[in-house]
Design goal:
43% of the residues lie in helices and 19% in strands. The chain is α/β, with parallel strands linked by helices and 484 residues long. The chain binds 1,4-dihydronicotinamide adenine dinucleotide (NAI) and ligand L46V6VHR.
């Protein structure tokens, strides 16, 4: 089992410890803070609840965590050392000196947010082993680690470090030219300084600034970065058009940070050329589709959490739910869910795996239950619908990227029973039908009971309207039954 030593077990050291442990490494932490063990325990509990949810493969057995009494004890026999002490250069120098007394040839990544590797290496016994490995909080979830070597670094050691970071699920971004605050923190710092001006000048509150980020460009940045986003914003003509349109802003007072590069053809060609090399293999339409697919995934996740832009989606749903019940019930199957076949839904036969048809049906029926008021508040009150029986007919194949619609027809309903017929459709093609019997239950008693009148008042008009629909062909089918 490999061993990582974490020197400094605060916010970032705790995150590194969790990432290594959950990826199967033994971890030894040294931090003189008497609270370090408790703090790391809490970070680890959060990481255990979060990181496995990102994986479709079972996680390796967790490594062993130990707390060393001295720095020398922590680093002994380690394959990798991550320094995460406070952002003070003289403290980092002292820590490196102590580490290299006993482990001069072991890789030492520093979490420093801003010091250059050449600064970290000053006075070191073996500068070649010291480099920046700058992570992002929470370290156990965010993949980026900026790996910054200096001219004194050993290239082979840097490649080994990048491989270790990949092994624990990170994305090592090799920063080729050392600079204060590396790459990402320079952006964070620029945005931060601009935000401080806006607040100080009374232009916006901290909340308004956060809304400006999380309701708009923050979502775009999170899935496409800066240049790819602006390339798409240039329309069919791409980056050159974008720059022609917005280049003049560089000399307008659009920012307090007025030290800007001269806007000339050389700059345009530099940026546009790099943008072509980065993204020119996709058409703008392809990039739009990639962007939209990514945004749908984000927004669905945010909606699940009822957070940020996801809260807006839920509020919008609620408004539409009220409007829906105010109108007369329609006599057509209800379109209750839209989804896209994701990579993790595909099986070894190259099409959507069977369990995802049930998932798609349950997305559809859950949305219907929310529609009739059997929502999470109703469940919190101790009542719910449970599925008693399901019959799936596989009628077609859904493949990666297909957009699917879940429609629901009520076959029958009374105060305790809800018999539904769900079609999972790709356009007009029904790829599966899912017939279900749901029973209304008192969750505490573990028995069926009549649904609340607030639910029945919404359900029964829909059931009455659907009674006029033709009975679906697949309804009531049993396994093995031949159609006459
Ligand atoms: N907080 C953040 O958002 C990020 C911080 N960083 C960087 O990570 C490093 C650590 O920052 P945080 O974890 O936020 O600080 P922190 O204040 O939460 O933790 C620093 C820890 O270092 C310990 N420490 C101090 N002297 C020590 C010594 N001689 N030996 C061992 N441990 C010692 C302290 O007791 C403390 O627990 C800094 O270089 C910072 O710039 C990097 C990315 C993000
Ligand atoms: C504010 N900060 C400079 C410490 C931020 C970072 O270094 C990275 C992060 O996680 O935001």
């Amino acid at each position: 089992m490999k061993k990582a030593a974490i020197i400094g077990g605060g916010v970032i050291g705790g995150g590194w410890a969790a990432r290594f442990l959950l990826n199967g490494w033994n971890v030894s932490v040294f931090d003189p803070d008497p609270e370090a063990e408790r703090k790391i325990g809490e970070v680890l509990a959060n990481a255990r609840a979060a990181l496995p949810a990102l994986s479709d493969i079972p996680m390796p057995p967790e490594g062993e965590l130990s707390f060393a009494q001295s720095l020398t004890e922590a680093v002994e026999g380690s394959d990798y050392i991550q320094e995460s002490v406070s952002e003070r250069l003289e403290l980092k120098h002292r820590v490196f000196a102590q580490i290299q007394q006993s482990c001069p040839d072991t890789l030492i990544g520093s979490s420093t947010s801003g010091f250059k590797p050449s600064q970290l290496q000053e006075g070191a016994a073996n500068p070649a082993m010291i480099f920046v490995a700058h992570p992002f909080n929470p370290v156990y979830l965010l993949p980026l680690a900026e790996v910054v070597p200096s001219a004194a670094s050993d290239p082979e050691a840097i490649e080994r470090a990048k491989e270790i970071l990949r092994e624990i699920g990170m994305f090592p971004l090799h920063v080729r030219k050392e600079i204060d605050a590396h790459i990402a923190d320079r952006f964070l710092e620029a945005v931060w300084r601009e935000a401080l001006w806006l607040v100080k000048d009374g232009v916006a509150t901290t909340e308004e600034i956060d809304e400006a980020i999380r309701m708009g460009f923050g979502l775009r940045w999170g899935q496409m970065g800066l240049f790819e986003t602006y390339r798409v914003a240039g329309g069919e003509a791409g980056m050159k058009h974008f720059m022609a349109q917005f280049g003049p802003c560089l000399s307008w007072p659009w920012t307090k940070l007025m030290d800007v590069p001269e806007f000339n053809d050389e700059l345009v060609d530099l940026i546009a050329g790099q943008s072509d090399a980065q993204s020119g293999h996709h058409t703008i339409r392809e990039l739009e589709r990639i962007r939209d697919g990514n945004l749908i995934g984000f927004l669905r996740a945010l909606k699940e959490r009822n957070w940020g832009a996801g809260k807006v989606l839920r509020e919008h749903d609620e408004r539409r739910r009220v409007a829906f019940h105010a109108a007369p019930a329609s006599g057509a199957p209800l379109v209750m869910a839209e989804m896209q076949v994701l990579p993790g839904w595909i099986d070894y036969n190259g099409h959507m795996t069977e369990s995802r048809y049930l998932f798609a049906a349950s997305e559809t029926s859950d949305a219907f239950l929310r529609l009739i008021g059997a929502d999470m508040d109703y469940v919190a009150g101790g009542f719910s619908y449970y599925t008693a029986e399901t019959h799936i007919l596989h009628l077609g194949e859904a493949k990666l990227g297909h957009r699917l619609t879940g429609t629901l027809q009520v076959l029958a309903a009374d105060d305790k029973r809800l018999h539904v017929f769900i079609r999972i459709q790709r356009g007009a093609e029904v790829v599966a039908s899912v017939e279900q019997m749901l029973l209304h239950v008192d969750m505490q008693a573990g028995k069926t009971c009549p649904a609340a009148s607030s639910v029945l008042d919404r359900l029964m008009p829909i059931a009455a309207a659907h009674a006029a629909l033709p009975r679906p062909d697949g309804a009531g089918r049993a396994v093995g039954q031949r159609k006459s």
